[in-house]
Write a structure and sequence with these properties.
The chain has 754 residues and is mostly helical. Helix content is 46%, strand content 2%. Helix 12 packs parallel to helix 14. This is Ankyrin.
Length: 754
């Protein structure tokens, strides 16, 4: 094998760059191996020393490096996963003297960084000003780099003003600096900021700035006149429209114009103002194919809809990109779960405008009176306005629609759902009256099924918990001839639908009136009835019923060690993982980051302790391997097979903020698994549960390791494996606490064994 010294200089430098686990020690060691490598690597180390010096506060090192030609705008690594400039590091680690020196030499404040904070998504790379505003203890550092370096952006295309709050005292000075930042673009940003914060006096002052160009949009394509519209400021809009650089027809990146925004705000004065402008096209569609009329119909006032209908080029029959007409949107707007964007309370809650329901009904009547409106038109998912009314349980609108000759009460949606099926899925008490109304219509049969064979009973039981008792309804449906064990094309009966949406009480009730759970026992991705039960929350009182169902399934002979068979997770965007994907059915997403037996699901749910014991008593294998399906953990060079307890440990942690409290919630589960024989060692190529627990402890999470060691005996792990792990940690003096715990465990458990 060739010596590293024989490699090209560029390759050796690349190797030095990759020494990121502990770069200082690794690169120095590499430089000291020979004169040849010293001559290559040492200049590399000196150039990179500015990052370490900025982090550690070594101003002298930075000055010396700068004198020797080091690039102080360069980005480099000091810690695994981090890459930033000396300015970033000095600001974050609180070294004012270094910041002042870097300001003096005039470094660039708009260089991206990686890994210094978790404020943004992984691909977003913040500039120094973001670190100064949110991650520094240096008083006035943000103001310093704004004034002296011209820092303005917190990340690419994002002015710092978009992330500031003028009400916060500690930000007032930097807000003032940024609001007065010179230039046409910053002036437009400042005006948007002032309008969004409702600082009218500040906005008026900015309007008088000679450097203001009101036509410059922000990164979302929103001009200042659009901002005036979506903040509902009629006075500011009038002032802006007097300027020659303001065009009221300019759309944002999503195709929304100020007229769209005015309709969205339910503002008649703004709508009237924009419609007076020659450049405004009332029929213009956005990227979703929606006109201002669609939006106004969705949460507008009848006066706005009436005004828009009078404009040339506006059609009440025009569908958007989803096939929804203004009538669809008007019916949808009556959903009590949808809140118009008006009258927001200080706590962030939406309060419905007074009279909104009456207004929306008047609006629907107005649209129905238009000669070009077809009240029976289907959207892309096959919904007519009547389907839409049934989806929200709105009997008033349904009565209006049923008077029309162009409305077909038996119309079918894309999955063959009739309005009756959709009404059956609604949870409101009004849905009962609506179902009765529909059944009075000629040709409507309670026994009708959709394209996949689902009955009305599937929709009643497979949706969210009802606001009424379902016993009488179910008894009526069964008496009228709907079969209780009718299996859909997806292998589901009404009982299975109830189980899939977590309505365990409904499932139990169906058992009492003759439902047979064994008609189907395997579902999407090979999930069994036990998997389905345990993938739903077990919080009381739901958990008690869930436990009874699990006992029932085991007694019926459901295989307790059945494995799921899932694709890698997460799935591609075009793949739907639901067990049953149809509007009106509330179905679960059964995928997780592992293929496993039901035992893993019980072990990782703190509310499933009783179910865990039931499974173990029934003979569930406490060492059934877990198959990793998480794309981030899959490695072509490693097996995807993992020890059972390793799987439990992996699913224990909160993926965002893992901590010992996660493990403590499952302490009793770990104890029970160890009692029934779960092992800390593993015969596969991946790390053992003991090794995984030690790795977590390396990151400061000791709870799992302590729980395992305190509750294990010689039946749970071999002496040789414990000795191997101890040997590994004898080479890691920085983890002496882990080593001491392992040695103490070895002495306690194997003191009489050779």
């Amino acid at each position: 094998m060739a010596s590293i010294e024989a490699l090209p200089v560029e390759t050796i430098c690349r190797i030095a760059d990759m020494c990121t686990e502990d770069p200082d020690k690794a690169q120095v060691a590499l430089a000291q191996t020979s004169h040849h490598l010293h001559g290559i690597v040492y200049p590399h180390i000196r150039a990179k020393s500015i990052f370490w010096a900025a982090r550690e506060g070594r101003l002298d090192t930075i000055k010396e490096a700068h004198e020797h030609g080091a690039d102080l705008n360069a980005s480099g690594t000091t810690t695994l996963g981090q890459k930033a400039t000396p300015l970033h590091y000095a600001i974050k680690h609180g070294h004012r003297a270094i910041v002042e020196y870097l300001v003096k030499v005039g470094v660039d404040p708009h260089v991206p960084s990686k890994g210094l904070c978790k404020c943004y998504k992984e691909f977003v790379e913040p500039y120094a000003l973001h670190i100064a505003l949110d991650h520094s203890e240096i008083k006035g550092v943000a103001e310093l780099i704004v004034q002296k370096l011209g820092a303005y952006w917190t990340k690419s295309d994002t002015p710092a003003l978009e992330e500031l709050y003028p009400e916060e005292d500690h930000q007032k000075e930097v807000v003032d600096l940024l609001v007065n930042f010179p230039g046409p673009g910053p002036a437009a940003d400042a005006l948007r900021f002032a309008m969004i914060c409702l600082k009218t006096a500040v906005a008026t002052r900015i309007l008088a700035r000679p450097d203001l160009d009101a036509s410059i949009p922000d990164s979302n394509g929103r001009t200042v006149i659009y901002c005036a519209a979506f903040t509902g400021q009629i006075g500011m809009a009038k002032l802006l429209l007097q300027r020659p650089d303001v065009d009221a027809s300019v759309a944002d990146n999503g195709g929304h114009t100020p007229l769209h925004a005015a309709a969205d705000q339910r503002s008649l004065p703004l709508t009237e103002l924009f419609l007076q402008r020659r450049e405004v096209d009332a029929g213009k569609v956005d990227d979703m194919g929606m006109t201002a009329l669609h939006i106004a119909a969705g949460h507008g006032k009848p006066e706005i809809v009436k005004l828009l209908l009078e404009q040339p080029g506006v059609s009440a029959a025009l569908p958007d990109n989803t096939g929804m007409t203004p009538l669809h949107w008007a019916v949808r707007s009556r959903d009590l779960m949808i809140r118009p964007w008006e009258n927001m309370m200080p706590n962030g809650a939406f309060v419905e405008p007074t009279g909104f329901r009456e207004e929306s009904l008047e609006l629907i009547k107005l649209l129905l009176a238009q000669h070009d409106v077809n009240a029976g038109v289907h959207s892309q998912m096959g919904f007519t306005p009547l389907h839409q009314a049934c989806l929200i349980g709105d009997i008033k609108v349904a009565k209006l629609l049923l008077k029309r000759h162009d409305v077909d009460v038996k119309a079918r949606a894309s999955h063959g759902q009739t309005p009756l099926h959709i009404a059956a899925s609604n949870w409101r008490p009004s849905a009962l009256m609506l179902m009765g109304l529909l059944l009075e219509q000629p040709g409507v049969q309670i026994t009708d099924v959709d394209n996949d064979g689902r009955t009305v009973l599937h929709y009643i039981c497979g949706s969210r918990r009802k606001g009424y008792t379902i016993e009488t309804l179910v008894e009526t449906v069964l008496r009228e001839g709907v079969p209780i064990n009718k299996v859909s094309a997806n292998g589901l009966t009404a009982f299975h639908q109830a189980l899939c949406c977590g309505e365990f009480w409904t499932a139990q009730y169906l058992l009492s009136v003759g439902a047979d759970p064994m008609v189907s026992t395997r579902f999407k991705y090979n999930n069994s009835l036990l998997h389905i039960c345990l993938k739903h929350t077990g919080t009381p009182p739901n958990g008690e019923v869930r436990t009874e169902l699990i006992e029932h399934f085991i007694a019926k002979g459901i295989e307790i060690d059945n494995y799921t068979d899932s694709p890698p997770h997460p799935l591609s965007d075009d793949h739907d993982s639901k067990i049953d994907d149809v509007v009106g059915i509330r179905s679960m997403h059964p995928l997780m980051e592992s293929d496993c037996t039901p035992l893993l699901l019980a072990a990782t749910d703190a509310e499933a302790l009783e179910s865990l014991e039931i499974l173990l008593e029934a003979g569930a294998n406490p060492n059934a391997p877990v198959i990793i399906r998480d794309r981030e953990l899959l490695d072509p060079n490693k097996s995807d097979r993992q020890a059972f307890l390793s799987g439990v440990i992996r699913h224990t942690w909160d993926p965002e903020e893992p901590g010992d409290e996660d493990a403590m919630e499952l302490q009793e589960s770990f104890q029970m698994l160890l009692k029934y024989g779960s092992r800390l060692d593993f015969d596969g190529p991946r790390e053992s549960p003991l090794q995984d627990a030690c790795k977590a402890a390396e990151e400061g999470r000791f709870a799992v390791l302590q729980i395992l060691l305190e509750n294990s005996t010689a039946k749970n792990v071999s002496k040789s494996h414990v000795e191997k792990v101890i040997s590994d940690y004898e080479k890691k003096p920085q983890h002496s606490r882990i080593l001491n715990l392992l040695k103490k465990f070895l002495r306690k458990v194997f003191r009489n064994r050779r």
